[in-house]
Design brief:
alpha+beta; five-stranded mixed β-sheet; four-stranded antiparallel β-sheet; 14 helices; elongated
Amino acid sequence: MTLYLLKFSACLGLIYLFYKLCLEGENFHVFKRYFLLIGLVLSTLIPLISFEIPWYQEHVMEIVLPIKNANAIDGNIPTIEPIQPSDEPTVAMPIGFYIYGLILGVLLIRFLRGLYLITRKAVTNEKLIHQNAHLVLIEEKIAPFSFCNYIFLNKSIYQTKGIESDILLHELTHVKQKHTWDILFVEVFLIVFWWNPILYLYKKTIQLNHEFLADREVLAHTQVPTYQQLLLQNATGNALYLTSSSTFSITKKRFLMMTHHTSITARILRGVACLPLILVLIARFSDWSLGQKNEKKIQKPMPVAIDVTNQKVKYKISKIFLAKGEKNPVVIKDYSELTKVELEALKHPLMFTIERPTDEMLKIWTHPRCGIWINEKHVPYQTLEKYKSEDFSHYFVSRLGKNAQVGKRRYQIDLMTNDYFENVYKKEALEKPLIVYSVGKGANQEQYRIELIKE
């Protein structure tokens, strides 16, 4: 979750920075409006996007070092019992979670209260219809402001002096272009991500662009100096939370924008520049992972046929992992002497599978704590630096017992190169099939192997 929030903040920050540097001062406000809204959505979604890159690999086995409860390896993979979850899992919620929830709750109540106050004013006060908008006449001394399809005006001023047509047109533009929905949209994000300072700047930027849009509509019918003087004369009173008002941010930026012109070429270039930004954000902040591509080259497991009726076959039974000081109880048996457990084990033939280590594993194993055997020969651990994952076809990993540890070495890694796996290991395994089976459960479990010996 923390990683997602960091990626979300980084995406939003870069989009906001790009807007401030490249777009805010230009006079194509409709494009800027949708850029800001889409940018907010992309910042939310990009960290959730996951791409899987197909690659040619027959089989992938994920492993994490260290492997616990394993002894020195002797050519076989130890059985690792999964950790059983507790019957009564308990999750301790951090205090920060409760603080976050408390603040979120307060902001949600504030948001709902703001909607309630505006709705109550719209319902309880006198209303007039004007160009598909509702003019709400209220007693309070307040600057004209709009919310959804309502324009709120001071009743006494409207009935005595009237509202200047330019101011009314400004608020009508907010209504017709549905700017309220933009504000409500970003307000929801502010409730959820209240801790993010970029969002507060982002909201002000969206509101300022709304003013640019409304000002442009008014300036199509009046002169710039006249309209600027009118704004300054009406810059009194306060608008309500969640509303749009002509008195919002009467700043130098807004006045300069009234006389600024952006050429068509500049609009196209700046608009096209948004595409590389989006591609960079997707490449940097989405989740990329290596997948597995289904190809005909994938090698399937190869069972070894065992002829149990062959009278010239003997079975060598031996224990795999021995306790300290324990001797291996090797027994040679005929088929008729095999136990039920051993007969059952014969039903599961040896399987050849491609189990390649990943490049990340090779990096982990290039360490003094790992003893490296390649093709059954011990080599320095630094030798792995010369190899890539695709150079190997099989690997075994185990944790060494105390009596088998040498220096810093705590793990034994057995690797087989592609050539050795195909031409040596598989050939020997076919000549002398090996079957591994377990007896007992839990801490009392023991592993044995059956080797077929041809006379």
